[in-house]
Each structure stands twice: as C-alpha cells, then as structure tokens.
Amino acid sequence: MRILQKLLNKFNGLHYTQEYLCFAKESFLQPLHVYLVNGKHIIKDITNQHLFVGYCPLVFAFSNADLPGSVQLIFSHKLLLPNETYSKKDAIASLDLKIIKEQAGGWEVSYYEGTRGSHHFLSTFHQFINSLYNQWYNKKPGNVFLHDNLYKQVQIAYAVPRIISLITVGNNELFNLFPTDLHGQVDEAHYIISLRIGGKACEQVEKAGKVLLSRVHSDAYKMVYGLGKNHMQELKPKDNFPFSRSLSENFKWPLPEQVLSYQELVLQDSFTHGIHKIMLFKIVFHQQLQVQNATLAHIHNSYATWRYKNGLPGNYLLR
Prior knowledge:
Elements (H helix, E strand, L loop, with lengths): L1 H9 L9 E5 L8 E6 L2 E5 L5 E5 L2 E6 L6 E7 L16 E12 L3 E12 L4 H14 L10 H10 L4 E2 L1 E7 L2 E7 L2 E3 L4 E7 L3 H9 L1 E7 L4 H6 L9 E2 L5 E5 L6 E3 L2 E15 L2 E13 L7 E5 H9 L10
C-alpha cells in the first residue's frame, strides 16, 4: 500500500509538496476575484465582503448582504463589472451555497453552506488522482475527512488568501496560544471566529468569554504552524508560549512575538454547525503596532499549482 500511496503522490499534478503555502498577503500579486453572479451576469465583487468560517461543512458569512436563499459565486482573475456578462473561461472555479442561519441584534449576519463546488486548478485526471488519495488515505483517527466535493469546495475557498491570526485565551495566570484562519471582521464592531467542537481551545474560549486576536508578521510562519497542536492543549503558564513582554490594553494578556496588530474581543453569541462552533464577538479594543505590509496568510496547493503553471508569481514561505 505504501508503494501505491507514493505513486498517487507522484502523479497528483501538484507542484508543491505542502498542502498549504504561506506568504505575506500584501505582496501576493494578482489574487483571485470572487463574484456573486446570477446566471451569466455579474452582480458584484465580494472578494473582500465574505468571511470563510467553516470547512466541514463549508460556511461563508456575509454582513448586511440582502442575499437570496441560494447564491452562486465564481472565482476569476479577470476584472469584471456589475451587470457584465462573463464567459465560462472567465471562471476557474465556482461555488453554490444555501442559507443556513441569520443573526440579528445590533448586527446582521447571514451564513451560507456550500452545496457544490467545481474548479479547473488541476486537470480532470489529476483531480481524480487526488480524489483517490483523499478517499484512501485521509480517513485517519483525529483527521476530519472531507468527502470528494466538499474537498473541492475547501480547495476553492482557500484559493483566496486567508489570514492566519493567533488567538490568546487566558484564565488567571494560565494561557493558551493557537492559530486560526476561519475568522474575519463583520463590521466596525463585530468579529467572527470559528473553532472546532471538542477541542480544548474551543472549550477555553467559551469559558473565558473573551479572546485576544493578533495578526502576525509573515516571518513568524514556522512558529505559527508549530502552535497548531495547541488546539488540543490545556492552559499553561505564559513561559510555555512565544509571548513578548508587551500586554494588551484592557485584558492585560501577553501579546505574541512578531505581532502587527491585535483586537480584544468579547463573546456575544454562538451556534454549532457541523464540526464548528461559530462565535460572534464584540470588538472592545483595537491597536495597530506595526505597519501591516507583511501579514501572514496562506492558500491551497491546488490553486498555487494553477498559478505556477500560468506564470503567476508566488512569494511562498516553504516550511
């Protein structure tokens, strides 16, 4: 079986060995646009007006969007305008979504679940090889298995650069520090973070009722990925983490090393969907400490491979 696994990896069509590739978001040239469409017509560009907050199932959040119950998104490198007609070759990926929940109460957020996704990041043959690998080798204990089309949906969602931030949670003199890429700011006063149900991190955040969310410099990518295991770790004294000597304004919690900016967030509401606890926070304080010209983000290998084959630059930081 080991030989078969190696063969599938050899012929998967992926240019990079790592599934997710880190980089400095601000210097990532010619990123994809995400468009809300109706039939063959562009409604509007929502590249910066959607939040990716779940991957099992896929969940996007929209603020004050006034959207119908079902929507279709396309992902394109072409600059398209509202009411413009797009052609099939303009869209290298598409996502269909349906509404699952609306929140109101000083905020208005609509949540949509992915129902189908398709992309052309890889050839049909290479997508088939990757599908076989996913079915045969990704059903591991502790690993969230994504069935074939859900895996495609996730690849599409991660074709847009997703910022990896660090979450600090504390109780008295004990803390935890872990990364998240399922998050985003809803409006000037509210923020959404999604954490996996059953994880220690999720329990700790729910109990504390508040978090410190930090954007970090791309140079910290190895440190940040190394903190991924902390989603399942107990609270510990701060000396166990790469904290700086600086403290946040109100919580007086330690800030991580190489922090660019941070927000103090207080939990307002939450709900469960799939494997996720999706939490809505109120922003109680924000401070920018450095110029944000190298914010840590990442994309999926399948889209990075498409960029490589099409001669688009990639400023990737390989781990």
